[in-house]
Structures are given as structure tokens and as C-alpha cells.
Amino acid sequence: MVKVRVGWALRGKPPGSHDDYTILRSAGRAFTPEDLGAILSRFSLGNPPSARQDGPGALPWVTVSEVQDAERHYLGLTIQEWSPDCDAAGRPIAVGRYFYLPYEAVSDAPVRYQGIYRELYGRDLAAQDGELVVDLPEASAAEQAARIEEIGFEPAATAAALLLDGPVTVTGGGAVPPDRRLAFFDAVAALLPYGWRTRFAAGTWHDNGSRHVRLAFAARPRPGTFELSWAAPREPPEGAARAREYLTALRDLTGGRRRTLTDIVAFLAAERRPLAGADPAEVLRILSELDWPVTVRRAAQSGRADPADLRRLFAAGRFRELRTAPERRLVFNALVGRGEVADLPLVQEHWHEAGGDFEVLLRMGRARLWRDPPAHGGAAYLGVAEALGFGGPYLAGLIEPPRPDERPDERPGGEAAIAELVRRDPPGRYPEAFAALVANERMVCELLHQLALDDAGNGNGNGTAEWLTALASAAPDTLVGPFRAVLDGAGEPVGVAALDRLAAHGD
Questions:
Q1: What is the 3-state secondary structure (H, E, C) of 273-286?
Q2: Are 347 and 380 a contacting pair, CB within 8 Å?
Q3: Which 8-state DSSP code applies to residue 237?
Q4: Cα angle for residues 84, 86, 90 (degrees, 5° grid)
Q5: Helix, strand, or coil here: 35?
Q6: Which helix (H) or strand (E) holds 345?
């Protein structure tokens, strides 16, 4: 339940008088009696039948409406029915009871128009002092979805879609009880963003009334409106482009894309920003957000995913809306496959949940090192691999010779960048990486080169001796020996023959 303060107005005329209809009593701080009279006139449904009679257009009539002042939006509900009294001419008096409540009071706790109606219908405003304080029941998405299915998805969805292009008249619904017509308005509103209520106006029966009532039941189509047959709703006409697109999207969501009606209602109910002045195209954009993860997945599948979309998908956690593990893995590997260092925090955060692929991360890390030195981000990639528990295999994969598609000759320096990563840790930390190192003579040479340069004038404080000892036990002596002889400082001469054997290992 949500507790709400409700302003109100009672419109009619004194019994036995010759007066015109006017505001007899009112309460609420937002509007003056003059304002209230103008509001009721703006959303008038027309003149009721002259006698108390049954039939499709018989009272009570119920109008749901919206209005705003300089500060707030308000939702309104008018109940028009016959009083037991007559005027001086003996004509029955139709009494209108208008209620309004701040939109912000129910924006975080969705309510139904039918719930407002049932709470306020029996209020005796002739004896009321001050605003009403009422408890309105919140409407769950599941409850709303059930109501839509009961009313009929097609008429409700068609009406919601048509409202994006213009006002709508529901014909052929004269036998529908007024309470069910109100339930239909709730079904229509639930298939639009909740903020649309700040521009939603509907009437249970319209007879030459105001054009500001955008959705109404009537005996015949109102001029300038789309006709919706209650018994057999038709497709929106060709000129109603937004309506056709929105209805197609709603059908697609409830069909091929496996979204439940409850999912759709809950998503739209969360869109609470007032839409009173928004372009109706904004509603299309909002609905597209519901299945946006599927749109991103489809783009990733075709290799056309926008990097910004991939980042947002994981930053917002919306990848979880994809139903299967292969779908989540596809978009995640698309993110990893962008090869952007800025994406690595997201990669590390969601690796296990999204089903990261080691080979994709390794391929991107290698591409960074072979193609993009010196700003290669290699340490960042390796740091992620280590945090995820496969630092050794990852480093071993980096050390392997470049593949033809990595084109190391275009930007030399890949070996130097990898050697920087190798020598930052003791040689025994990752056995698989050390094994890959001694199998790649070019990488051993680059490592020895860096050790020699770093060691010059600095003693053996950078792990040089430890590395030389480890390499001497596994790499060819013809490769390691000359470096070790010089760097150990033992005085052993390095002759021309030793240098020839060293040069045989390559440039």
C-alpha cells in the first residue's frame, strides 16, 4: 500500500435551482475552484443522456486524466453519475467528483487506475473536510500481466501503440461494463512506460466531448482518431509508422525473443520519468532498451557490435539477461576481442560468470605486444591473467614465436616488450613460462640483452645472476656462455670462436 494525499472537487448544481453547473466544494492546495472547473471542462466526455437510462452510454462515466502546475504532475480521475436530485426544471442533476494526486507520490509505487477508482468511488464529498488521505494498493508486474491477458493482449497492445501516433476511439465495446473498460485502460497504460501516465487521458464513454481525451469508448469513431474495434482489432494503418513499429516490437518480445509479459510490464513500470512533453519516439527507444542485450548479441554475432555497447552491457550487468551461456560467452569474447586495455577491469570482473575464453585473451595480449609497442599494455593483460589464476600458461603463450598474422616486422619491439614481462619475476615462478622461454632462442637473446644493459654499472641487483644461472642449466651454452662470462666478471675471455657460435643463433 502507498499512502497518498488526494485533492478533490465536487461539480454539480444545487437541487431545485436554475444555476449552471459549477464547482460546489473542493479541497487541495494545488488548484483553485476556477482551475478545477477548467480541468473538468478540458477532459469532459460530453453531455450524458438526458434521463436516467441504461445502455452503452449510461452513467457512470469515468475519466482518467493528467494535469500539471508549475511544479508537479498530477494524475486525475473523474466519476460522473446521476444524483437523486433535480434542478428547478425537473431535470436530473449529474454530479462529477474529481480526484487528483501528485504523480511523484505513486511514481515509485505503481498503482492502477482501477485501484484508485475503487478506493475513491464511495467517498461522500458533500461531507468531506480537507484533502483525503488514502491507501492505494500497489500493482505488481505479475498482476498487471495477468490483467492484460484477461483483457486481451492484442487490443491492449494495439491501443498502446496507436496512442504514439494519435488519439484512439474504441468502437463495438458498448456491452463492455464500465469497470472492465477501466481495466482496459490499465492494460493499455501497463504496455507503455509508466511516465506516459503524465500524458494519459481516457474515458469510459465519449459523446461529443473533449478532444483532449486521447483514448475513449464511443458509439462511433471520433473525428481525427484511430478506430480500434473491440471485437476485432486491426493492424495500425500505413500512416501510423510509430504504432506499427511499437506493436511489432511488443509482439516480437512476447514471441520469438522469449520475454514474458511480466518482464515487459516490469521493465516499462520502472521507466518513471514524466513523459508529458517527450517525443513519442522516446517510447520506442525505451522499449528497445528492454531487449537491447539481444540486439548487442546479434551485432556481436555478425561482427558489428559497437564497443561502447559491449562495455555498457557488462558495466550495467545486463549481459545476465541473455538466456544461455553460449550467448553470454559470445558477447563477452567480443568485448575481450576488442583488445582495449581500458576494458580489462570489466574482463576480470566478469570472466568466470560470462565464460571467458583463455585463447581470446591470449590472442589480444599477443597482438598488443607484437603490434603496439611501446604503449602495449602487456603488464595489464598479464596482471589480469594472474588474477584469474592462469599467469603461467598466459606468459608461456606470450613467449611463443609470433604467428604470421601478428606481423612483427611492421613494428619491431615485440620480443623486447615480452622480455620485459618475463624478467620482472624470478625465473622459477612459472615453470611452463620458463620452458617456453628456453625453447625460443630469440627470446633468450632478448632477455640476455636486457639483463646485460640493466646490469651495466649496477652489479647484480636486478636478478641477473639468478637468471644467468637458471638459463645456463637449460639453454645452449653457446648462447648463454658468452653473456655469463662477461656478466659474472670471472675474467674468462670470450674469443672470436665463441662469438661466432653465438652469432649462429641468429641476428
A1: CCCCCCCCHHHHHH
A2: no
A3: P
A4: 140
A5: helix
A6: helix 344-354
DSSP 208: B
DSSP category for residue 111: B
Torsion of Cα atoms, 328 then 334 then 339 then 343, to 10°: -40
Q: Where do we find the cell 620482472?
A: 424
Looking at per-residue pLDDT, the higher value among 194 and 368 belongs to: 194
CA distance 214 to 218: 12
Rounded (5°) CA angle 494-497-500: 105
Which residue carries 486525475 as its cell?
Answer: 76
Contact 241, 231 (CB under 8 A): no
Average pLDDT for 100-114? 94
- At CA 200, angle to CA 46 and CA 184, rounded to 5? 80
Q: Which residue has the cell 636486478?
A: 462
Among candidates 69, 67, 19, which has minimal Cα distance to 41?
67
Q: Which three cell numbers stand for residue 398?
A: 606470450
Distance of CA 434 to the CA centre of its chain: 47
Model confidence at 411, pLDDT cuts 50, 70, 90, reads low
Q: Please state the separation of Cα 333 from the chain's center in Å.
A: 21
Which runs of consecutive H residues, i.e. helices, occur in 372-506? 378-387, 391-399, 414-422, 431-438, 441-455, 464-472, 477-488, 496-503
Helical axes 178-190 vs 153-162, angle rounded to 10°: 60
* C-alpha cell, 259: 520475454
Measuring CA to CA, which residue among 163, 108, 160 is closest to residue 139?
108
- pTM, two decimals, is 0.75
CA atoms within 13 A of residue 482's CA, in its CB half-sphere:
18
CA dihedral 415, 418, 420, 423 (to 10 degrees): -110
pLDDT confidence of residue 456: 52
C-alpha cell at 71: 511544479
- Span 326-347, average pLDDT: 94
Hey, what's the torsion of the CAs at 458, 462, 463, 464, to 10 degrees? -50
